[in-house]
Amino acid sequence: xALSTSRGKKAASVTKTATTPKPNNLTWIxxxxxxxLKGKYDNITGPLQVIVRVARAGVDTDVFYxxxxxxxxxxxxxxxxxxxxxxxxxxxxEQQKMLEPTKAEHLLKVITLFKxxxxxxxxxxxxxxxxxxxxxxxxxxxxxxxxxxxxxDLVSQELDRMAEGYSL
Length: 168
Fold this sequence. Notes:
By secondary structure, the protein is mostly helical. It has one domain (2-163). It is built from 8 helices and 2 strands. β1 and β2 form a beta hairpin. α2 runs antiparallel to α6 (101-121) and α6 (101-121) packs parallel to α8 (149-163). The radius of gyration is 15 Å and the shape is globular. It starts with a strand and ends in a 5-residue tail after the last helix. The model is unreliable at 1-9 and 15-32 (pLDDT under 50).
């Protein structure tokens, strides 16, 4: 992954990859055809200061599409997660327009969460399974909380608690 210059701004971009739409969320959960995030996106994820700095500089739509492909998540599901439509993302890609800073920050937080989950749980299949489990004494699932940046932060804190040995 490299930083590229577009319209005078430094922007995060990755090699372009095509994604194929998946029929539904259950397919996403059960599908094990995904890569590993370890070592990827390291220069655009991490501490909040890095995420905000990168988001403000501009994040290319290629980051969205490569991440969706890497975790084998339907574009529509990831787009909804960051409060965008697939049509808007497609338009941004065609126009070589960067994601708005708030959308970029949200996406980078989701990527960081998946990286943390992969490190803690061992692989992306376990991350996907954990995100789709009901929360303790609730019918809500962790994945339901990823639709806001604050929700991503709360789910990340749950992973931190798990890493420290607390039961969830």
